[in-house]
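TASK: fixed-backbone design
INPUT:
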């Protein structure tokens, strides 16, 4: 088999609901010279059967199955098998735009000092409705600055395409920082070359309550500080000095009241959608927030604004 220009690595764990759209968005890319390495990380919800069906339909797919070891271990398994010059990451619940790979390969070819490139995203909800476009900094220095700040997105992991030899050189993803492994990798990549984000949206980034961003969010502050400490050692400069003192103290977060965190996300997504003029999306999430906390003044304020359409 000829060596492909691009290797696409996608770890999968129990994503039956969203998997078909994710897989098809890769297979339908305008750039065709790639291998698609899918690592099924012990799925037990029917995802494996879906992946097997696609494997029979397209010989670019290499399907690997393993016992559940987490996203870092699954990603590293895929990287170890990758044969391409470039390496693209994909998540099992997102959707890549058809021109994504061509745009990123063109950029990396034109900028040999760049080791990884990403893009802004269009956030979508569990039904695929648009929530908002989320911008990211485009230059290396701006991305580096955003990496330190826990309130900012420097790069979106499922938009990343990197040089495969650099990813292998840095050892892939850390098992210690699983669930925030992308931040650790971004710091390490930035130490080996320049990072960039293209201006156009290349991925629809799904927001839902089964995602790691939601289920593991309480672990992120601790991991963020540990990643900064490790990067500080490598660079000989204390990056944690830029963090807020309260963030560094890492006091245990109180357990939220039943439904409170879910309500907060529904409120946030509704406001984002309303600000972006996605009124249908805003209405959908405002009603979900109302069902969770119908007596909250914040819920009623949101509903009033949604009904007015602004």
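OUTPUT:
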């Amino acid at each position: 088999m000829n060596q492909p220009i691009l290797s696409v690595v996608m770890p999968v764990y129990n994503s039956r609901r969203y998997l078909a759209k994710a897989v098809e968005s890769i297979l339908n890319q305008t750039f065709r010279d790639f291998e698609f390495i899918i690592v099924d990380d012990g799925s037990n919800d029917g995802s494996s059967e879906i992946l097997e069906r696609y494997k029979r339909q397209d010989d670019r797919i290499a399907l690997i199955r393993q016992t559940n070891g987490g996203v870092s271990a699954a990603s590293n398994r895929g990287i170890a098998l990758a044969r391409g010059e470039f390496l693209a990451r994909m998540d099992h619940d997102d959707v890549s735009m058809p021109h994504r790979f061509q745009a990123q390969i063109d950029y990396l070819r034109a900028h040999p000092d760049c080791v990884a490139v990403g893009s802004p995203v269009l956030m979508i909800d569990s039904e695929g409705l648009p929530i908002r476009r989320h911008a990211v900094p485009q230059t290396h220095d701006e991305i580096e600055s955003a990496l330190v700040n826990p309130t900012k997105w420097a790069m979106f992991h499922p938009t990343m395409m990197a040089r495969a030899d650099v990813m292998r050189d840095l050892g892939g993803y850390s098992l210690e920082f699983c669930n925030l492994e992308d931040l650790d990798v971004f710091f390490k990549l930035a130490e080996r070359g320049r990072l960039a984000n293209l201006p156009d949206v290349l991925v629809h980034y799904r927001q839902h309550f089964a995602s790691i961003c939601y289920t593991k969010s309480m672990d992120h502050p601790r991991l963020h500080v540990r990643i900064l400490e490790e990067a500080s050692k490598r660079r000989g400069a204390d990056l944690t000095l830029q963090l807020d003192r309260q963030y560094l103290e890492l006091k245990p977060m109180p357990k939220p009241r039943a439904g409170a965190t879910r309500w907060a996300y529904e409120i946030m997504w509704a406001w984002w959608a309303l600000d972006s003029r996605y009124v249908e999306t805003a209405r959908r999430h405002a009603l979900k927030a109302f069902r969770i906390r119908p007596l909250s003044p914040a819920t009623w304020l949101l509903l009033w604004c949604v009904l007015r359409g602004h």
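COMMENT: Residues 6-219 form a domain with the Spore Coat Polysaccharide Biosynthesis Protein SpsA; Chain A fold (CATH 3.90.550.10).
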